Amino acid sequence: MTLLSDFRILLLVLWLGAACFFSFAVAPSAFAVLPSREAAGTVVNRTLAIINYSGLIIGLILLASSQVSRQSVNRVKLLLEQGLLLFLAAACAFGQFVIGARLQNLRGQIGRPIDELAVDDSLRVAFNNLHGYSVTILMAAMIAAVIIFFLLAQRARNSENL
Asked: DSSP state, 36?
């Protein structure tokens, strides 16, 4: 059972590490070094899609694998883990398919670089609001992943002591 536990922790940590690297290194660096904010936004958008799709897939894999050996686990902690995994998967799906799709739609409506719009332009305000929601939902998914990590690590330690 430790191989499965280790694999589950590895998947979660890989996603969390990628999400942190994206949030704190890739996105800021793209806007700092690329020649235009549009180019940086394209890189960030494409990379965020990878983070969101992988979060959705990993969340579902971990949710399905949480059913294995559930008889030896505290029921409350298992339900918390499963709820957080469902939240992680749903947050990534929502970030990609709802917020991301709306941002893409707005980019199409704008038809030119967003920075060319007035700060109080309704399309720019809507874009900025959606961007804020995107950041918030990713951060919430990352926080959920940290909590899940501690739950999985505790479960692994407890199974070693049996």
From this structure: -
